[in-house]
C-alpha cells in the first residue's frame, strides 16, 4: 500500500499539519525539514506533488464535506460548486459525513491525505474540531450554509433572520395571527430563522404561542411530523412557515394526508424553488434561497484563498432570500 501523508507524519514524529505545510511549499524549521525529507525517502512517499518537486505543488483538486447528500438544498449547492471549479480545471472530491461528527473529522483527514488544494465545508459538528484540524494543516477553508461560533473561517450564508422575518411579517399583514414555524435541528440556521419569526411577532405585538414553534430535522420526515403535531393541537394555526426544501415537501404531503385544503384550511409558505411549486394548485408560496449563487460564491472565495489572496479574512458573504407569495396563502379579515 502506498504511503500517505499520515505515514510521513508518524515516521518523522511531526504533526500532519507541519508535513502538509512543507509539502505545499510552506516554510518549516530546518530540523523539521530534514526529518520530513528523511521520512519521505524512507517511505518512498510519492504523491503527485512530488512529481512537481515538493515546492508550490498543486493537485488541482478541491474537497467538499457535507452532512448528507440526501438534502436537496445541499445537492444543488454542491453541484454548483463542482460545475464552477470544473470549468477552471479543478476536480472535486465530495464527502458526506452521514450526520456523524467523527466521520466528519475523518473525512477532513482523508481529504488532506489526498493533498487537496482547499476544502469547502457545510459544517455538521458545532464543536469546531473539523475546522481547527483543517486550519492547522494550512489548507484554505470556506464554510457554507452555517458558521461555527468561536472558529474563525470564511463563509457563505443567507440572512437567516430576514429569511423568516419577512414571510412572518407578510402573513401578519394578510391578517394571520396564529402563525406556526417549522424550523431545523442545526445550531446556526435554525436559531437565526427562529429569531426572525419572533422579531416579526414582537414588532406587530402578536402573542408567541410556544405550541406553534416546531423544531424538526431538515428532512421530509421532519415536515411530516411537524404537520402531525400542529394539527393535533386543539387550536391549530391558520398559517405555517416551513423553513427548508425537504421539510416543505413533507409538510405538503401530510397536509393532504390530513385532508386539509390549501389555503382554505391552512396557508403555507415553504422554502426554496421546488419544482413542485409551480406544478401544484394552488401555486406554492415560498422563500427562495439562491442555492446556485451560494455554491458559486463559495467556490470563488476558496479559489481566491488557494491563489494566495488573503484579504478581508474572515470574509462572510451573506446572500438575501426572496419571498414569493402565491395562491397557497389567503387573506384573513380580523374582526374588530
TrEMBL record:
User: Keywords of this protein's UniProt record, alphabetized?
Assistant: DNA-binding, Repressor, Transcription, Transcription regulation
- CDD domains per the UniProt record, alphabetical: HTH_LacI, PBP1_LacI_sugar_binding-like
The HTH lacI-type domain covers: 3-56
Q: Does the keyword Transport apply?
A: no
Q: Which GO terms describe its molecular function?
A: DNA-binding transcription factor activity; transcription cis-regulatory region binding
Q: Which SMART domains match?
A: HTH_LACI (SM00354)
* Domain of life of the native organism: Bacteria
Task: Kindly provide the name given to this protein in its UniProt entry.
Answer: Transcriptional regulator, LacI family
Q: Please give the organism.
A: Hydrogenoanaerobacterium saccharovorans
Amino acid at each position: 500500500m502506498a504511503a500517505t501523508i499520515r505515514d510521513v507524519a508518524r515516521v518523522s514524529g511531526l504533526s500532519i499539519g507541519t508535513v502538509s505545510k512543507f509539502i505545499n511549499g510552506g516554510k518549516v524549521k530546518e530540523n523539521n525539514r530534514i526529518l520530513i525529507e528523511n521520512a519521505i525517502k524512507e517511505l518512498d512517499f510519492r504523491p503527485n506533488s512530488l512529481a512537481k518537486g515538493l515546492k508550490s505543488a498543486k493537485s488541482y483538486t478541491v474537497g467538499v464535506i457535507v452532512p448528507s447528500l440526501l438534502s436537496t438544498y445541499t445537492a444543488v449547492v454542491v453541484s454548483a460548486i463542482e460545475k464552477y471549479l470544473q470549468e477552471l480545471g479543478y476536480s472535486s472530491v465530495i464527502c458526506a459525513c452521514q450526520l456523524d461528527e467523527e466521520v466528519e473529522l475523518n473525512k477532513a483527514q482523508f481529504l488532506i491525505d489526498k493533498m487537496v488544494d482547499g476544502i469547502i465545508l457545510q459544517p455538521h459538528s458545532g464543536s469546531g474540531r473539523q475546522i481547527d484540524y483543517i486550519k492547522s494543516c494550512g489548507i484554505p477553508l470556506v464554510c457554507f450554509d452555517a458558521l461555527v461560533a468561536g472558529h474563525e473561517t470564511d463563509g457563505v450564508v443567507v440572512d437567516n433572520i430576514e429569511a423568516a422575518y419577512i414571510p412572518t411579517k407578510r402573513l401578519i399583514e394578510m391578517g394571520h395571527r396564529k402563525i406556526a414555524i417549522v424550523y431545523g435541528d442545526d445550531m446556526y440556521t435554525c436559531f437565526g430563522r427562529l429569531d426572525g419569526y419572533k422579531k416579526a411577532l414582537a414588532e406587530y405585538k402578536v402573542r408567541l404561542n410556544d405550541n406553534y414553534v416546531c423544531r424538526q430535522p431538515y428532512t421530509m420526515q421532519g415536515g411530516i411530523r411537524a404537520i402531525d403535531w400542529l394539527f393535533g393541537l386543539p387550536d391549530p394555526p391558520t398559517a405555517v412557515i416551513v423553513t427548508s426544501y425537504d421539510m416543505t415537501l413533507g409538510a405538503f404531503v401530510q397536509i393532504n394526508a390530513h385532508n386539509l385544503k390549501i389555503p382554505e384550511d391552512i396557508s403555507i409558505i415553504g422554502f426554496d424553488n421546488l419544482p413542485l411549486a409551480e406544478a401544484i394548485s394552488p401555486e406554492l408560496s415560498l422563500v427562495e434561497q439562491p442555492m446556485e449563487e451560494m455554491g458559486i460564491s463559495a467556490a470563488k472565495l476558496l479559489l481566491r484563498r488557494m491563489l494566495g489572496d488573503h484579504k478581508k479574512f474572515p470574509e462572510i458573504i451573506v446572500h438575501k432570500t426572496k419571498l414569493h407569495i402565491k395562491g397557497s396563502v389567503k387573506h384573513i379579515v380580523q374582526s374588530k
